[in-house]
Amino acid sequence: MIKAFLFDIGNVLVRFDYGRVFRAVEKYAGAGRVAEVEREVRAMGQEMECGVVSADEFVARSVELIGGGMGAAEFRAAFNDIFWVNEPMLAVVDRLVGRVPLYLFSNTSELHERYLFERYEVFGRFQGGFYSWSAGCMKPDEAFYRKALDELGLEPGEIAYIDDLPDNIATGRRLGLVSHAYDPERHETLEAFLAGLEAG
Question: What is the Cα–Cα distance from 88 to 190, expressed in whole angstroms?
Answer without folding.
Answer: 10
